[in-house]
Amino acid sequence: MKKKILLAIALFISFYGINYAQEKTISGTITDNNAVPLPGATIKVIGKDIFAVTDFDGNFTLNNVVAGDVFEINFLGFQTLEVPITGQTTYQVQLQEDAGQLDEVIVVGYGTQRKRDLTGAISTIDSEEIEKTPTSNVMQSLQGKVSGVQIVSAGSPGDSPTVRIRGLGTFQNATSVLYVVDGTLYDNIDFLNTKDIKSVNVLKDASSSAIYGVRAANGVVIIETKSGKKNQKPVIEYDGYTGIQRAQNVMKMANAEQFTTMAFESGSAADAQFVMNAMQRYGRSRVNPNIPAVNTDWYKEVLREGIIQNHSIGVAGGGESVTYSIGTNYFTQEGILDMKNEYERFNIRSKVDIDISDRLRAGVNTVISNATKYVPENAAWFKAYFAVPIMPIIDPLNTEASPIRFANAQNLGYRGTQNPFTDLTYNDNKQKIRKILASIFFQYEIIPDKLDFKTTYSHNLSDFEERYVNLPYTLGNNFERISSIRRVDNTFSNQYWDNILTYDEEFGEHDLKLMAGASYRDEAANTFNATGQDITGISLESSWYLNFADPESFNNNVNEIGRRYYGISYFGRLEYSFMDRYLLYATMRADGSSKFTKDPWGYFPSVGLGWVVSDENFLKDNEFIDFLKFRASWGKLGNDNVAASDGSNTITVVTAAIDDEPRTGITSSSVFSNNTWEVIEEKNFGLNLELLDNDLSITADYYIRDTKDAILPVFIPIVNRSVNQNSGVIRNQGLELNVDYNHQVNEDFSFSIGANFTTLKNEAIEIDNESGYIDSGSAEFRQRTQEGGPLFAFYGYERTGVYQNQAQVDADPVAVENDLAPGDLIYRDQNGDGIIDDQDRIILGSFLPEYTFGGNIGFNYKFLDFSMNFYGQTGNKILNRKRGEIIFTQDTNMDADLAINRWHGEGTSNTYPSSAGLRKSWNQRLSNFWVEDGDFFRIQNIQVGYTIENDNLPTTRIYFTAERPFTFFDYNGFDPEVSDGVDRQTYPIPSVYTVGLNIKI
Amino acid sequence: MKRIKNLFLSVLSVFVLGVSFSCTDKLDSQEGQLNTSDLDYTDTEDMIQPLLGAYSEFTSRGWEEPLLLGVRGDDVNAGGEGDQQPFADTDRFVYSKDYWMYNSLWAVHYNDIVNMNAAILQIENFKQFADADGVALADQYIAEISVLRAWFHLNLAKVWGDVFIITSNQPLEEVQDGPQSKEAVLQWISDQMDIAIPNLPNLRPNERADIPGGVTAYTAYAIKALANQELENYQGVADAAGKIINSGRFSLYPDFYQLFKKPGELSDESLLEMQYSDFGSETGDAVYHLYAPFGPQNWTPARENASSGWGFYEPSLKFIKFMLDRNESVRLQTSVLFTDRGITELKDDGYTNLPGLVSNTTPSGDVINDYARALFASGKHYLPSNQLTDGRNDYGAGKNMIVIRYAEILLMYAEAITHGASANGISADEAVNMVRSRAGMSALIGVTTDQVLDEKFAELAMEWGIRYYDMIRLDKYNELSYDGRTFTAGDELLPYPQAQVDALPLQSNAELNAIRISNELMINQ
């Protein structure tokens, strides 16, 4: 090593000393058009092995050049510039920013591509957009911003939203999108701090994502984290916000008066008696002596305001041969459910790249994430709907309840205890989520600028500890719960090893890029769980360990499940462009997976074509169109997120009580399917258009996405279970449109307007089942997938009205036959046979929206910036299962809308049945009385920021954010965002108001 | 330098390839699951395990199953007023094919039948590797499971009439031709028992050492008798029941009240019993049935913190008055838990001079308080709170449920003889009087069918709908038309559950005919 340095110095001196007549040294500075220096720009003399990188002040020096040489300057985000060397020795070069984003290089699978060369459908969202949303999960910030991507928010802190890319093509884990963060694959990215992200690319079509083969079926999201640049002074950035979250659109429940009215009208003596019991126990209302004095609004009681906070501090920079970016982040969020319900995350990350030699590079990327999540008792949401308003939270008369005298509905005569506060108070659900994610790569240029080899190994180690503590309590009426603790330990160890060879060649007008690679993966998961009861010292948190449980209670309460899947893949890609106008893109992947025992190997090709019309001679001089490209692509994907064999022929150990002795027996399940790959085949047609000096850009895509051999849960009668098996073809098709307009009016004022629009038609086009349909959902709330209809459509009767009077009942043979009364629902006789029976059921709708749309408006004026996003969807249906639960028990309260708008006399309602009718099985059949429209429109985000530029201060920006401040909808629930369309105990999505501060030094 | 580079590359490529190939084998491995085919079937010691699994399945009944099987009789009402309306409707013979309970009863029963079939296949796998003794044992185990399987079929046939016979664990072929007629199913059950009996031990269930309370030949005879009773083949009933009676192994448990409590578990009276237990331990695993639906909704238990029930299964006033009119004591007290409200109701109906046993305090000291949903609760599904294991609070926790007992056999035998079957052991009078004597009732002479039916009513009320199925078998619709109900022939069977009609070829002949007729009518119009 020493020798080499000596040699280098010697050479340097010798070159310096011997001054060739024509060779000289030049120097210069590279700036942007505002004369701000650009550090880290690369300069290369064309045709020679002479390189330089600008320093912190944008300065560079090139040795041994001659007049007539040309040097090329590259800097990300700016147009590449070639400068001929003349007699001068100093050069002041100004780079122009990229017009539009066409020259932007974006990350695609196992490589990068210029945006203008793309033939598939890829949407990019940059950090600025992502950072606007105060959230723990980056995907939440994509809501409404990307056409073709449906994000269904998760209300509970730390939970990940449901992400659907281009509809629903499969059932199991249908939303498990593949996330590729800096080249490493993840199923879940809850460990990522939004502030650390540089860009998010959504690979929407099959051709773009096919390089990920079996993992790509539900779409691929590629995330690049921030990294340093070469020769960049360290930039220290602090970003923090804090704010509150509050429930919006809180559902109004029937109050004591409405509830009492409903109870008396129900015709049930018992229910009337319970109201009397409440009056006896709690007194009569002074306002209306016929109702109990208690009037509890349970939703109001179980809700609270939650605090959200995020603080990130990071440093990024680089030297001659090293770039780095390190940072730490603390995020905390309280849930809006009034119990120990919160999420706290602390992250440390580092990303370092080193040029070991001019050909060998290496880098390490690590994230350590330590999170604690207190999980809500979602049952409390349901109970808050369920609990009768004539019961208080705390009942001083309930002396048998301890440690707190919570009220017990059983004391009024109801079957259940109802009070949600026992769930909120006597449960402690803690999850510790610790993740270490590390990757290392080595990259070697075998032939400089042409052939390159990269090997990457990454390991995701996650430990997910769960501890559910049930504290003991009594509640009167002989209700006693003994203490118990359930502990679950989940360990996930996923290892990936990728080897990639890339070859680049340019000859004449031809550009060729080839890539070949192999990937090996090993995904292991282990779950160990045990439950112990009767914990000694339960009142102290320090004894919340299974060691203190009654040892006998472990009997049959300890389980372990282990799974390990292996996969091997080989893949290759060809990118070819001719005259920068005609683009060809093709990939091939062969995937082997140990999941599919029947046939472990699957082959997934794809091809894409592009034509940059605007570069053709006949359009080149056109002043109107700046850029126009037509794209078409086709690709096949596999899906290994589905069960390869479901049900399976496996053994379960059970206990039989024989003569008061536990005896161990086995049962074997015998219904199973041996599935083959679910294959997705997609065609995509698109165009990119830029007009008005690249200010207006339009992207449109139309796709047809077929899932063949779709694995769906098929109900096996007699055996009475559903088995996931290859059973049909599902088609998703739709149009995606994005329009963006940016305009810099003058130095002080710029503005942007954007809109996106998505249509989705989800349809089963073939069902391989004799009946031609597949039933799912529960028998009472039937969902049916039938040919020509959407997946898991709600299936039932069509309500056309309500019988208003006895004459109408008497005149209708259906009503007479079924012994109906005024106040009962009228159903449409679909087949006209004069009777209402199962043949009259129809598809009532799907939980997938038919149209979604989003948009944004923003402007910058001097130091002020403003932006607003909105989002909406139409055409989806929600099964109001909260109401529907009345079919299982009528002990419940109901929402005010139902109580107020019930039928209670001629002309009072033509949509809702009477109180008595609600209890009749005729009206309890699944009909569109229970299935409601889920349309909504929402102001997604409003942000106002002000930047303080002062020489004495670091760059400081203060910003205010209102996330989801207003949502408009008709659905009778808390929130129209219900991921599977069945609303039973959905955690409502809060509004968030924050104030933030960003400082850059 | 170049050589080093080439060396580096070739080492690397060999390494990459090497790892890749060694990984290929891994594609065939399946960690973390035990496939049915991976079990060691040569170890015939384990052959009992699928049988124990079958018993475990037999006892895992949904709470709604016994309720729905029994609720339509005139011995019991739905209770739970204002809750589970379609359940109350069912009690009044207004049926809804969409009601979840119907579907659940069907689905869970058939699922268990398939599990029985899977267990038989398992034992057959063991049998292949067994020696002569092992083969005999395998045949016995298979016979035991066939008996349990027959009981499920019997229930299905009683509730729905024409149903499927399922004998495999891949049932899709067996359902293709639609359901079998009720008669065919019952005959099949009877024939199955004839096949099973030779392989079963000639013991009382509680005499079995390997599986106390397991199925024996007499259980099979009992099922055979029940199937033949449904077929109204009374000679078949008398023959099968006679086998049990003549064995001399069975006797009535002397304490009728405790027969349905812990002391009466696995008594000499029991022919088939679902066994539950918490193994006497305060915590840990327990095998329970959810008895809460049977229990009173409000009580003051003798042992604190014992949970009350839901009040979904209410002995009818008709039954209680019938018992009072007969001057029954122990059987009334055992069958019914009284509330003060219920007692007032009786007094209002003219029963002013009630015996002391009609009290809201049970003989075990639990006090049944008034609750709005019902007047009475079932006593046969009641476990006194002081018989609960310490620390266990569930209503009826760990109590067994008797499915078939000797008293039913005696009465079934007696009834068959009154229908004209020839006796092959004791007389009908003798059989009935054995039952009456335990209940402290005087002996009868020359019993008639109606007297036997009354005796069955008194003895077997609240148990598994025995009363209801007797009434519809004998078309005694007037008995079922009580307390404002009207029962007609069309109400005998429940409609097939909607979910099953959607999934199975289940249009019965009757329905097809009805459709044909209505179509013709429409055409004619």
From TrEMBL, chain A:
Q: What is this protein called?
A: SusC/RagA family TonB-linked outer membrane protein
Q: Show where the TonB-dependent receptor plug domain sits.
A: 115-220
User: Which family does the record assign?
Assistant: Belongs to the TonB-dependent receptor family.
- Report the locations given in the UniProt record: Cell outer membrane
* Bilayer topology: Multi-pass membrane protein
Q: Which InterPro entries match?
A: Beta-barrel_TonB_sf, CarboxyPept-like_regulatory, Plug_dom, Plug_dom_sf, TonB-dep_OMP_SusC/RagA, TonB-dep_OMP_SusC/RagA_CS, TonB-dep_rcpt-like
**Which keywords does the record carry?**
Cell outer membrane, Membrane, Signal, Transmembrane, Transmembrane beta strand, Transport
Q: Which organism was this protein described from? A: Christiangramia antarctica
UniProt signal peptide: 1-21
Automatic annotation (TrEMBL), chain B:
Q: Does the keyword Membrane apply?
A: yes
Q: Name one Pfam family in it.
A: SusD_RagB
Annotated ranges, domain RagB/SusD:
269-479
Q: What is its main location?
A: membrane
Q: Which family does it belong to?
A: Belongs to the SusD family.
Q: Organism source for this protein? A: Christiangramia antarctica
Q: What is this protein called?
A: RagB/SusD family nutrient uptake outer membrane protein
Q: Which InterPro entries match?
A: SusD-like_N (IPR033985), SusD_RagB_dom (IPR012944), TPR-like_helical_dom_sf (IPR011990)
